[in-house]
Write a structure and sequence with these properties.
The protein is mostly beta strands. The protein folds into three domains: about 5-140, Galactose-binding domain-like (Jelly Rolls, Sandwich), CATH 2.60.120; about 150-260, Immunoglobulin-like (Sandwich), CATH 2.60.40; about 265-370, Immunoglobulin-like (Sandwich), CATH 2.60.40. About 10% of the residues lie in helices and about 50% in strands. It contains two helices and 30 strands. The protein has helices spanning about 5-15, 375-400, and strands at about 20-25, 35, 40-50, 60-70, 80-85, 90-95, 100-105, 115-125, 130-135, 140, 150-155, 165-175, 180-185, 195-200, 205-210, 215-225, 230, 235-240, 245-250, 255-260, 265-270, 285-290, 300-305, 310-315, 320-325, 330-340, 340-345, 350-355, 355-365, 365-370. It has an eight-stranded mixed sheet with strand order 24-26-22-21-29-28-23-25, with no helix packed on it. Strands 1, 2, 4, 7, 9 and 10 form a six-stranded antiparallel sheet that branches. It has a four-stranded antiparallel sheet with strand order 3-8-5-6, with no helix packed on it. The termini are far apart. The relative contact order is 0.11. This is CARDB domain-containing protein. Keywords: Membrane, Transmembrane, Transmembrane helix.
Length: about 400
């Protein structure tokens, strides 16, 4: 027996000693292994294993441990197929799925019988030309920790939080098996960047022993950086099986709908001129009122007056409000003049950032610019001057 086999057997025996209910090797059962020594060959052998009726109880798990050698290497295209109790669907195991030459296969505890029939078929390939199924393979009944699909979950109280809102995420791991085990639970896969959900505070890890039928639970607080459908990263747990194999499991990936915060921003443009008649190049006062009716503060709110080549704004068409608190209003004073006559509508656009860049329209005001009429005094003066010139010319030419 080579050193690798001795080491593997010691590892298995040392790991399962306290969890073993019953166990026998193929050789101890009087059953042989078999081998294939050429590419693209297949061979099958049938085996029978008995289980004490008293051992077929909840918490006991019948397991077949196949010990095999592969040469020159294990591969994905060579395989071992196991059929249990004449099940029509055989279990296909790529030879690359064996760990240190071992593969353990759980029998369905509910369908296991006192007498169980197992068929093992081996199929070589061009990559794996030799397969040896050894008589050191084992069949036994064991106690072990069990983590079923619904035993390791992430849950939330609120599956539709808003962007920036903090929400609680709970991680639960339940041991449905019959054996305690040391576990290391982490709130997400380490070293995997994920920026849609940020960790805020709370417990991120549990290291300890979980007993049979015990549930370990801890929570942390997160928040989302964007709106829309978001997947929360799965939690991970690592533990060592009763056969000495380190195993990693992942939880579910909760799907949540992140909503945009309720932000209501309004803008108004007011003509503050008291003049009824406005003429070209006459500047008038305007007032912009920007109001945050939402529940969240807004930062760097951009205000841009609608561009018009015939309008001149002083001092310019754009502003930035660094902070507009919830429920607060800001007033901006400016002046405007028109180059030509006409009716002008003056509005503005507001830009702000929540989860995305957003835009809103201001309620506009109007400005009517008219031709400037000639003043009565000026007309009268012109008439008098014209009359005086005529009188002067009359007397001047009369003398001549």
């Amino acid at each position: 027996m080579n050193k690798a086999l001795i080491l593997s057997l010691l590892l298995i025996c040392g790991s399962v000693f306290g969890a073993t209910v019953s166990e026998r090797s193929f050789a101890e059962s009087g059953q042989d292994g078999f081998s294939l020594d050429a590419a693209r060959m297949s061979e099958c052998m049938d085996y029978q294993f008995s289980i004490d009726q008293n051992h077929l109880i909840p918490g006991n798990y019948p397991i077949l441990l196949i010990n095999a050698d592969f040469a020159p290497t294990a591969s994905q295209d060579a395989n071992v197929v196991v059929t249990i109790n004449e099940d029509e669907n055989g279990i296909v195991i790529p030879t690359s799925g064996f760990k240190n030459g071992w593969y353990h296969l759980d029998l369905n505890a509910q369908t296991a019988k006192p007498d169980n029939f197992v068929s093992i078929c081996a199929q070589t390939s061009d990559s794996t030309t030799s397969i040896v199924i050894k008589d050191s393979s084992l069949f036994g009944v064991y106690k072990k920790p069990v983590f079923n699909e619904n035993d390791f979950v992430k849950t939330l109280v609120d599956y539709s939080p808003l962007v920036g809102d903090e929400f609680s995420i709970t991680i639960s791991l339940h041991n449905s098996g019959s054996e305690p085990v040391d576990i290391n639970v982490f709130y997400k896969k380490p070293y995997v960047p994920y920026d849609s959900i940020l960790y805020v505070k709370g417990q991120t890890q549990y290291v300890g022993t979980i007993q049979p039928n015990e549930t370990v639970t801890f929570s942390y607080i997160g928040k989302s950086t964007r709106s829309g459908m978001v997947t929360i990263p799965a939690a991970v747990v690592t533990y060592t099986t009763i056969f000495g194999e380190e195993t990693t499991l992942v939880s579910n990936y909760p799907l949540i709908m992140i909503g945009d915060p309720e932000i209501t921003i309004k803008g108004f443009v007011f003509n503050k001129s008291s003049e009824k008649n406005i003429f070209p190049l006459q500047d008038v006062a305007l007032q912009l009122v920007i109001q945050n009716d939402g529940l969240n503060d807004l930062f760097n709110v951009g205000v841009a007056l609608d561009e018009n080549a015939d309008l001149l704004f002083d001092p310019g068409t754009t502003r930035v409000i660094p902070l507009l608190k919830a429920g607060e209003s800001k007033t901006i004073q400016l002046r405007v003049s028109a180059k030509t006559v006409g009716r002008y509508e003056i509005g503005c656009k507001l830009t702000y950032q929540d989860s995305n860049m957003r835009q809103a329209e201001c309620a506009p005001t109007s400005l009517r610019v008219e031709e400037q009429p000639l003043q009565t005094e000026l007309v009268a003066g012109v008439v008098l001057v014209f009359t005086a010139v005529l009188v002067f010319l009359y007397y001047h030419f009369r003398k001549v």
